[in-house]
Amino acid sequence: MRYRDNLKQAMKKIALAGALTMALSGAAFATPQDDLRNAVEYNRPALVQKYVAQGVDPNLKTRDGTPLLVDALKEKNIEVAEALIRAKNIDFERTNAAGENALMMAAYQGLLPMVKLMVETYDVEVNKTGWTALHYAATNGYDDIVKYLLDHAAYIDAESPNATTPLMMAVMGGHITTVKLLLDEGADMNLRNQQKMDVIDFAKRYHQDEIAAGLESRRRKLAEQSGKPAAAPAPAAAVSQPAKPAAPDVPTPMPPAKRGAGAPSPAGRDTIGTPTNMLFDSNR
Q: How far is CA 215 from CA 51, 52, 175, 232, in A?
């Protein structure tokens, strides 16, 4: 009996020693790059600042291939993101597998302070070919970011690879105030994507009935003001949907993601007390 107890104790000590050896061995072989990746992953801004100051490249990617800055913004780790944004030699145009850069991710997550920091302090370009930060802000109905980007020369009718516009994304997501903001700022409601869908088609396809009614009213009134009859809707493709720009494991505006905890409330309550036919009246 005593022999078995002693044997168990000895085996436990051997296992513990082995685990400790492996841990020390792993630590010994960890690179500065691994240290920075871990600091970003575990949301340790002070360590991020330390390793970047020591010369570790802030443009490293996570183990799944996402730029560290894009990953920090995706996770809404604000202090880590800011430390990377302020790092020397940071490349704001690095993208993940879906083609999403740092500004797009900040816009998608509703991080206006990060958007402002990149645009105002580091002169990050707000426009790009294909999906843009404006698409992403409109997708989730972040009116403050939409307005900010427009005020900083974002192209209002930017087209995704299949010609989907920010206005179409706002309509699809049911963000009424975002739709009105874009229309009042001059978005073209008559554009069609490669599936021949315009904004009213999007509203109907995604069961945004209130928005569809408001858009139809606006189109009629604009036609009356111009003295021309409203154009008859063109038939849209029966099953086609806007192209999906992102891999399944990253945020993407197709379909719009649900807002995370703490994000502004859905735009559905924004119309209380404002009839849709008045909400979409042209201000121009």
A: 52, 50, 13, 14
CB 198 within 8 A of CB 191: yes
CA 68 to chain centre: 15
Q: Classify 6 as helix, strand or coil.
A: helix
Positive or negative, the CA dihedral 93, 96, 99, 101 is negative
Which tens digits make up the pLDDT trace of 178-222? 999 999 999 999 999 999 999 999 999 999 999 999 999 999 998
pLDDT tens digits along 224-254: 888 766 555 555 543 333 333 443 333 344 4
Secondary-structure class of domain 126-284 per CATH: mainly alpha
Question: Which DSSP letter does residue 181 get?
Answer: H
Closest C-alpha to 104, from 158, 62, 36: 158
Domain boundary assignment for the chain: 126-284
Tens-place pLDDT, residues 97-147: 999 999 999 999 999 999 999 999 999 999 999 999 999 999 999 999 999
